[in-house]
Amino acid sequence: MKQLIVKIALFVFIIFLVDKPIGFSISKGIINRQYDQRIELLMKGKVRSDVVIIGSSRSLNGIDTGELEKNLNNQTAYNFGFSGSNLNFHESIFNIITQVYQPKTILLVVDDDDAFKVNEKAIYRKDKLFPFIQYEPVLNEIVKNSSKSYLPSKVSWLYRENQNMFEAINWVFKGRLEPDETTNVNEFGFIPLSNEDKHLNKLVDRNLSIDYSPQKEQKTFIESLIAIVNESETMGIDLYLVRLPSYKAKLVGFNDRLVEIVGKNVPILDFSNELQDRKYHFDNGHLNANGAKSVASLISKKLNP
Amino acid sequence: MDEKLTKKGRRPFLIISLISNLGILCLFKYYNFFNDSFASLFELLNIPYLIPSLSIILPVGISFYTFQTMGYSIDVYKGKIKAEHHLGYFALYVTYFPQLVAGPIEKSSNLLPQFKVKQFVEYKRITDGLKLMTWGFFKKVVIADQISPMIKYVTDNPEQFNGFSVLLCSCLFIYQIYCDFSAYSDIAIGGAQVMGVRLMENFRRPFFAKSLSELWNRWHISLINWFQEYIFSPLGGSKKGRRKAYRNVMIVFLVSGLWHGASYNFLIWGILNGLVIVLTLRFTKLKSEANKKLGSFRKSVWYRRFLRVKTYLIFAVLGILFYTSDLYAAQVLGKSLFKGWSNDIMGIISNEGNSRAHILYLGHDSIRFIALLIGIMVLEYVHYIQEYKGSVREILATKSVFFRWTLYVGITLLIMAYSFDQEIPFIYFQF
Looking at residue A85, which CATH number applies to its domain? Predict the structure, then answer.
C-alpha cells in the first residue's frame, strides 16, 4: 500500500513538473500564430481605451474606431467586434474587458432582427477565445460557455492549453496566420471593407417596412443583453445600444422591443435609417469604409457633450 | 427458480424472466422502430394507422444489462449455476458499474463468485489495472475522438465525396469504433481489476483476423459468446447440417444487427455480415482448391497480410451502414465508393483550392491528420507485439525504470493534451 501511494505521488509530481513547460510552449505558439492580437493587447495592458465597441462583424467593419477617436474630445476608442459572433459571445467579451479594466463607455452593436434569434452565421466564437486561454478572464468565459473544466485547467497548463496544441505546432512549421477579412484589424481594432461587394442586393426595396417579430427569440440571448446592461450599471460604465445602417427593408418596432428588454435607462443610438445611399454599403448587412467613417462621425456627435 | 428440481418446473420462471427482460428492451428500444415501420406500411396501403409513437429516452446500456440478466436466468434454468439468493450480490451483478453501460456482458458464473471473495491491496494487480485503463483512455482520446469529426465531416454532406474519401472514411471509422469500444472495455476491465474483479476479454486484435468469421470471434467477444451460447447452440449450431448452420448464422447476425440499434441500417448491416460468413462457409471447398493452387505462397507472410487487409476492407465497407444515420446516406456513400477515384487522387496531388484537406484529411489539417496516423501506428505496433510476442505489460517489465516511466508519463501527457472540450460519448453507450 505504501509503495503504491509513494509511486502514485511520484508519478503525479513528474507530470506536474513536465506539464507547465509544455502548456507554456503551446500558449506561446498559439498566441504567436494569431494575426488578430486584440485580446493579447488587452491583456498586456496595451488597450485601455475610453470607448470600446462590442459586437459582430457589423461592428467590426461598421464603426471606424480611428475616425471615432479623432472626433471624440480627448477620448480613445477601440473596436472589439468579432465576425460571426452572437450576443452570448458579446457578453463574454464584455466580461473579459471589464475584468481587465473599466472603459468609460461601451457601445454594443445590436444586430437588429438577428440579435435574439438563432442564426447559424452568428455563433459563440470559442475559437477566438481559446488562443488566449492562458489568461484568467478568458478561461472563466470559456468554462462558462463550453464543457472545458475549470479545476483541471487550473491544475494543469497542458489541459488548459490542449485545444491549441495543433495550431501551436502549425506555428512552428507555418508561422503566423495570414490575415483575412475577419482578422486584418488595424491599430484601432477596426477592419475597413472596400467599396461594394458583389453580394450587395441592389434590388432591396428601401421603402418597405417589416414589423419586428419577437417569435423565435432565444432566452439565452436576452439574458446576455440584460447581464451586460446590469453589469454596466453596477460598474458605472455608460452603455449605449447601437443600431447601424443596413441596406435592407426597414425594421419597425425593434427599438420598442429593446426598451422592453433593457428598460428606458439604456440609450439607443439608432442609425438604422441613416446613410441610405448605396455608396456607404459593402453588402446588405455591412457598411464599407466610407459608411464606417460616416457612422463614426454620427456616433461622436452623440457621445461628445 | 433453482428450488424446482425439474426443468419443466423451472420453465414458467424462465418465461416470466425472459418476457419481462425482453419486454423492457422492446418497449424502450424497438417499439418506435416497429411502430413507425407499421405506420409507413399502412400509409402505403392507404389504411389509417392510429397507434402513436412513444416519446421516451432509451436507458443507457439497456442492451448490455438486459442480456446479462437473461443469460443469468437461462443458466439457472439449465442448472448450470445456482440462483443468487442475496439481493445485494445479485443487484451488484446486474449493475456492476465498470461494465454496466457498455459491457463486457459477463456470465454470472464468472462475476458472482468474485464478489464474495475478500479483496486485498495488491500492488501488481492495481498497477496493472491502472495501466490498462490508461491504454483505454489513450485509444479513446488520441485515436477514436480524433476520427469522430472526420466521420461527421463526411456524413454531414455525403454527396460531396468520391470513392477515395468514402473508403478512407470507412477504414477510419473501423478504427474509431474499435478504439472507442475496446477503450471502454479496457477501462472497465482495468477499473474492475483495480478493485480485484476480473472481467472477460472483449476484443482480441480483430484486425489480425484473416476472415470475417474470425474477426467476429475477436470482436465484442462477450456478445458473440452470448449469441453462441443462448441462440446459436440452442438452435442446433452447426451440428444439424449445412443448411441449418447457415440459417443459424443468419439468425445470429440478424439479432446482432437489431441488438446494435433499432434501424434498417443496423438490420441490413447484420444481415450482410451474416451473408458474407455464410458465403465463405458455402464455398469452403472452392477456397481450399484455390489454396492448393497457391501452393507455398499461401503460407507466406504476404498471403496472410493480404487476407487481413481483405477482411478489414470488407468489414470497413459494411461499416458504411453503421456510421450513416439512414439508408439514403448509406446508399449515397455506397455509390460514391465506386466513382471519382482519379479526381480524388489528382486533388490530393495538386492540392488545388486546398482540396487535400477535403479529400484526404477529411476536414482536419495536415498536422492533426499525421498525428492521427502516428496514433494508429502505435496502436498497430502494440497489437503486433501482443499477437506475436505476448503481453506488453510483461515485456515492459523487463525494460529499465527510466524507459517505463517515460512511456507512462508520455501517454498520460498525451491523454491530457488530447482531452479537448468537445465531449464525444462512447459510441456503444447508445446501445
Answer: 3.40.50.1110
Q: What share of chain B is helix, strand, coil (3-state, %, to 5)?
A: 75, 0, 25
Looking only at the bridges linking them, the beta strands covering A77-81 and A209-211 are unpaired
Distance of CA A55 to the CA centre of its chain: 5
Q: Which residues contact A96 (CB under 8 A, 6 or more apart)?
A: A39, A42, A129, A137, A138, A141
B159 contacts chain A (CB < 8 A): no
What global pTM score does this model have?
0.84
How many other C-beta atoms can be found within 10 angstroms of the C-beta atom of residue B328?
10
Residues of chain B with pLDDT > 90: what percent? 53
d(CA A1, CA A3): 5
Contact A162 B420 (CB under 8 A): yes
Residue B134 has pLDDT above 80, yes or no: yes
**HSE of A142, CA atoms in CB hemisphere, 13 A:** 26
Return the H-helix or E-strand segment holding A240: strand A238-243
Measuring CA to CA, how many Å separate A294 from each of A52, A228, A274, A287?
18, 27, 10, 10
Distance between CA atoms of residues B127 and B104, nearest Å: 21
Cα Rg, chain B, nearest whole Å? 24
Q: Which residues of A touch B371 (CB under 8 A)?
A: 166
Q: Which residue of A has its CA nearest to B124?
A: A4
Confidence of residue A202 (pLDDT cuts 50, 70, 90): low
Instruction: Count CB-CB contacts under 10 A for residue B94.
Output: 15
Cβ contact (<8 Å) for A19 and B416?
Answer: yes
Maximum CA pair distance of chain B?
76
Residue B85 falls in the annotated catalytic set? no
Q: Are B24 and B62 in contact, with CB atoms under 8 Å apart?
A: yes
The residue-averaged pLDDT of B248-254 equals 93
Arithmetic mean of pLDDT, A161-174: 92
Q: Taking residues A52-68, what's their average pLDDT?
A: 94
Question: Interface pTM (ipTM) of the complex?
Answer: 0.80
DSSP 3-state of B320? helix
Tens digits of residue pLDDT in B144-159: 999 999 999 999 988 9
Establish if B407 touches chain A: CB-CB under 8 angstroms.
no
Give the pLDDT score at B282. Answer: 86
Nearest 10 degrees: Cα torsion B54, B57, B60, B64: 0
Residue carrying the nine cell digits 445456482:
B82
The total of structural domains in chain A comes to: 1
